[in-house]
Amino acid sequence: MSKNQFESQESSITDFDPNLAADVLVIGGGPSGTWAAWSAAASGASAVLVDKGYCGTTGCAAASGNGVWYVPPDQSLREAAMASRETLGGFLSNRHWMARVLEQTYTNVNQLAEWGYPFPTDDEGKPYRRSLQGPEYMRLMRKQVKKAGVKILDHSPALELLIDQDGAVGGAKGINRRTGRRWAVRAQAVIIATGGCAFLSKALGCNVLTGDGYLMAAEAGAEMSGMEFSNAYGISPAFSSVTKTLFYNWATFTYEDGTEIPGAGSQRGRSVIAKTLLTQPVYAILDRATEEMRVAMRVAQPNFFLPLDRAGIDPFTQRFPVTLRLEGTVRGTGGIRIVDETCATSVRGLYAAGDAATRELICGGFTGGGSHNAAWAISSGFWSGQSAAEYASLLGGKANQRRLEGVGEAALQSKSSGANTLATDEVIQAVQAEVFPYNRNYFRTERGLSASLDRLHSLWQEIRTSRVVADNEIVRAREAAAMVATARWMYSSALERKETRGMHKHEDYPQLDPNQQHYLLSGGLDKVWVKAQPLGRGAEDRGKGEIFQSKILDSTSKIGVAL
Amino acid sequence: MIELVSKSRCIECNLCVSVCPTNVFDSVLNGAPTIARQSDCQTCYICELYCPVDALYVAPQSDRQTTVNEAELTATGLLGSYRENVGWGSGRTSTAKTDQTFQLLKHLK
Ligand SMILES: Cc1cc2nc3c(=O)[nH]c(=O)nc-3n(C[C@H](O)[C@H](O)[C@H](O)COP(=O)(O)OP(=O)(O)OC[C@H]3O[C@@H](n4cnc5c(N)ncnc54)[C@H](O)[C@@H]3O)c2cc1C
Ligand code: SF4
Ligand code: SF4
Fold it and tell me: Domains in chain A: how many in total?
């Protein structure tokens, strides 16, 4: 398939051939998906990118903006950057992978500058490249992807993967949300870049992120890793979606009566906020920001102030109620397991990148502040695109004549006939009731997790035995199935990790247990499984010996803070 | 949530229909788009950026509907305020260019 064949097609939304073929198919068009598509095309492959929303505006980076783990190639700076998060992450990260990500991110962010991203200059007149404003960044990525000849299908969520007779992945099928037309794309290799799962919590930009890619990958036989690290919560004004957290570093948190909540804070004191919210409202005021900072803050993150301005609140002088919204694996670290440096999954022809892939390799069990997330999306996206292109060229064009079969089941096929139609909204509310509450997910107990799992397993049964919904509801139904599947891997993994490590806080086992310094793999659909996996082999081992020794917790490090 | 498509301002370009990540709008032949699936709105404010004539208003409340008054929003300068504050649109300088995050991080303890 030549690239030109794609370029000639104009409208990306409604007007395309519903049966396409390409060397590489990228599912998801956030940072990781756009970097993947761009690097696949740059490696000579023809590529199609499909997104549930509109590539360039959708995904959490577009709406929110990203601080980036951008560290110049200076040995001591990079060493410090790597060491700074190892404790927080519970010693599950890997120096070899961190070094790779730092290097690739540095290169690619410089590429952004070449493409014309309007980076500011610092007070020494040097370009400052550690912060990306979301809408600007993703508009640029869309432009570059199109320029590289990638065919973009917007509003076209993938519903299931296609596999060949040997079990290798060979494309995907989906639907166009605007026209209702089904589509299919055959491809030698497929990259899952569908982001994480935030369970429709309305955290900023996150409602397109429902774990679809996890479900599709699992149906093709892929494994998850680190799904216990899935309870990230972002602070937002109670009425608002804006879970931008950096500025809460300069906040005072108070009870209803105005007295300060001891220990409450944005980074280390977030669990105190969660504990307090279980019984009473929590208020914030950004009174620790100096006058001079206040001006800079408005320019740095206009979207932080937007809801407050519109609600008539001056956050520097007036306190406002805050809440914690679940961001799940978006700013958690669990995701599809990748097996080598190419970002391949355990299924042939299938790659994973960004939030869809596990981020434990560079963050362990905690992302702390952000930055690593954006860096991971850029790097893993880039690598997966390149390797998928290579794999596709080895396979050759004939591969697109393979006999393929869709492997999607949940909400696409029913195990029994004549039952009730799936009550999608009820299923969604039910899964949210298990994963939103702080006393189930933020603070975990064996009893709570087991009780939730019982209910989640029966929800899954309900999905599997209900009658399939009509096409106009199929996307939501698949999202519901993906969220239930994700929650089951999350809590099954959480039950197995009988300790507290990274963001996984287990009330019954409040200490870190050195004997559990391993990854937890999980998977399975009708029957969920979890197993331990040692930290690393081969190249990955290089980092391992150092992990327990480098306990330098550099909390003053300014490299890598969440925006 | 999205609360307003101003009929008087809208030039029917349908950009909002295209760019909304959660497919909230429906286009209308010879008319301004409708808010067809308001409860799907994720309050990301993206549509406001892309609307060339500041015809859209996203209220800050993400979990409930509110009533808005176009004349009031215009008078208080809230219609189009996000676009202005980010420096989005022709003739404006993107705040990405003047981003002062590095200054702020110096204050981070
Ligand atoms: C409020 C907020 C602030 C953040 N701040 C920072 C920060 O300062 N620093 C940092 O490093 N990280 C930050 N992050 C995290 C960072 O934004 C993500 O790690 C990053 O966007 C991941 O990129 P991605 O491409 O993997 O996923 P996303 O950007 O989420 O993109 C996933 C894409 O997949 C699409 N998709 C989903 N399902 C399907 C389907 N079935 N078919 C087709 N397409 C599908 C979605 O529409 C979306 O476009 C923040 C996140 C949030 C929510
Ligand atoms: S705020 Fe976001 S989700 Fe809501 S209508 Fe606008 S673009 Fe769509
Ligand atoms: S983007 Fe603005 S002008 Fe264009 S159709 Fe939507 S509301 Fe109307």
Answer: 3
